[in-house]
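Email to the structure team, subject: Dehydrogenase model.

Hi all, the expression group asked for a predicted structure before they design truncation constructs. Nothing fancy, just the tokens so they can compare against earlier work. One-line instruction: predict Dehydrogenase, return tokens.
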Amino acid sequence: MEKVRVGFVGAGGIAANHLKNIQKNDQAEIVAICDINEEVASEKAGVYGGSVYTSFDEMIKKEQLDALFISVPPFAHGEMEEKAAGKGIHLMVEKPLGLNLETTLKKAEIIKQSGIICASGYCLRYLDTVQKAKDYLQGKKIAMIRGHYLTMFVPTPWYREMEKSGGQLVEQSTHIVDLARYLSGEIAQVHANMSLQVHKDIENITIPDVTSVNIVFDTGAVGNIVSSFAQFDHRMGLEIMGEDFRVVLDGVNVSIIEKDHTIDYKSRVDVYKVQDDVFIEAILTGNPDLILSTYEDGLKTLSVTLAANQSNEAGVPVNIPLGGKTK
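Reply from the structure team: attached below.
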């Protein structure tokens, strides 16, 4: 193919980044944009091009798509992945992949059998600084990790409802969970505590605003990830510790610290653009190994966050179905 013909379903939120990046990619072209809000789809098409749709089924029936970006809320996926995969359309599915592990597992099997390239939207893996951290950690014994995702409340109506978003850990802090997996290994068990403390006056809110998750890795390493939207600013990070070293991710920058030596790395990339360009390149070259976060990776991270919700509800530790054995 001369250019990858790209469609979008879901034109708001994070889709704006993907639309901008694909428009700038000389090896791709935007041919269709679908959103249940026709005004939003039309506005984006006026900027980035492409035909406008309000029906996903109509779009994939009428358009000859090579690739599709799915950027809809977690409760709204329906059978989009299965239908697109059935037509051989390569997929970039934004996180989280869904809210039900069994349903998402079935999607994963259909995607696998179709042979398409399918990426998930864990963009932080593509940071140049994260790759520095990953290279440094190769062969090192990790003992403990500490992570945080602290930010302000998101006013989007569906975000505040547990049955639609899955809560902050599933919808936002999932990025830190994914980085913990990517850099420290698979997670075997979680024990979570969550509470609604300072946002009880928000209409229809059913998600916790503070979360703490204790983690056990396959290796026996332990850790903790905290998240909250009770803050006035945005901070995220991850600290990975072993004997005589620690790797600290602060936002998008990384420090590698040893007893008498520290190296600081400042990120120099637009991580969303890198992620999207790699997706297009993987399609053109037929090389799925270029994808750093596959659908399977996204599924494993989802299983951790859903298990944390389960742990909080039950008040007990929960083993991860897609993780491994606790030590």
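DSSP finds eleven helices and 15 strands in the chain. The mean pLDDT is 97. Ping us if the truncation boundaries need rechecking.
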